[in-house]
Amino acid sequence: MKVALIDYGAGNLSSVANALRELGVEPMIVANADGLEGATHLVLPGVGSFGDCMGQLGERGLIEPIRAWVGAGKPYLGICLGYQILFDSSEESPGVEGLGLVSGTVRRFKDAPELKIPHMGWNSAVPRAAGSGNWAGLGDEPYFYFVHSYFPVPDDPQVVAAETEYGEDVFASAIERPNLLACQFHPEKSQDAGIRLIRNFLGC
Question: Is 204 a catalytic residue?
Fold first, then answer.
């Protein structure tokens, strides 16, 4: 197994790399398309804005290789922005195109009294297929760590793997396709539940 960890200049690489090492996996830090050669899995973490992320990936020549990787059904784990950029666009960065690999838009939480934005801290994610696949051993309502003001809204509800409630919104906190797992929360900061989710995805 060779896990490529995408470095686009703003990702939370150290925490994700440490989580992988805890599982006995030494990641390959990749900052351009050539670094993907020989990789078996691709992990794209993310902090920052939708527009900045797409811009940095573009400067590094990684947009088309990532599209090709996911389009070919190769194992992909997207975390936070690595989840959001799979979609067509985001209210955070009007006019900026996402990867367009999953149909839908990234939207901002609705302002409401006593609702803190960003959504920050521990919250549950309710899996649709609890106890199986990527969610094996996590129970019916595992808790993960979130930090975000925006969340994807997939056009196809069939891709939704887990949902989370915050204020008036119940949003897709994770999606799945064959060999693809992408989540709004940070598994690398989510202690045992997050490590278990990553282990399940990698199959290690």
Answer: no
